[in-house]
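Sequence and fold:
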Amino acid sequence: MNNILPEIRIKKLRNACDRYGFSGVIAKKTGITFAPLSFANWLHGWIWNDPYIEIFVGGRGQRKSLSIVVASEHEKQVVDSHGYTKCVLGGVPLIYVPEQGIVRKDKTLLAFLPHSTESAKLKKSHLDYLDYLHSVRGDFSDVYVSIYWYDNSPDLQEAIKKRNLIPVIGARPDDMNALVRIRRMLEYAEYVTSNCIGSHIAYALYCGCTVSICGPYHMYDNNMITAAGNVHEYSESYYNHLIESQKESYVKGRYPWLFPGHPAKGRKDVSYGEQILGKKWMLGDKDLKKVLGWTVEGQIKGYVTGGIRRVNRFVKNV
């Protein structure tokens, strides 16, 4: 698999639209040599639980005229109900990455490890899950283990290889090729599994993989979730919702078909993947430029408005 992945190309992030190389994907799609600064909030990833307004605008909120792109009509209703006037249906960023033409390898399993709060510390839960993957290794031609960039470490790599599994580096937020990398990984693997819920599940369905959650279930530490909530000033009800919706009982209740007992018995459903990632709402080039503020008018308005806000904050703090 590693030989079909693009190089990691690091670039300083200007805002959320740059994350995982999304602005570069749109620039290429629309025929622009350099991606201008974007003036919109575009959420990366699948919302598998009930959407709260905080996921789109943070705990502090944003100006009501900000362009916000969402993936479903329900998400748009949530945003609209809080007074935001420019919420647009556009799907999630991954759907804008074109098919890569990768030949899928039969009986190949790709397992996604949970993120570990970007700590690069080898946890017992990692080892337990790797032991599980080793136990089903004989049922597949190869078993790859995707590692989030900030969780990568020599100890984790060694633990994976020791169990006759193959490590592969997954996404990194400031990698301009990250979305293309993930798409190629998912076009290559026939089966995708994990021990936690997350966007990787929806991405794998969308890309035609047979998908499952198997092995010892990973529950994110409550302190980690609430700490993230405090950083972004989320409401107490929101981070309580995050804690609840990470639980195995919640995920099984909502998506029982994701737990077949073995990765080879997972679900393949491209149409459902397209539905939950908002493929039907995919924007054309003209609308993309307008929503992101990539027109001449949008760039002038975005920079002027941003400058005024910075001046107002400075005056307020004097």
Observations:
- The beta strands are 40-42, 67-70, 86-89, 105-112, 142-147, 166-169, 189-194, 210-213.
- Residues 10-96+278-317 form one domain.
- Residues 16 and 268 are 30 Å apart (CA to CA).
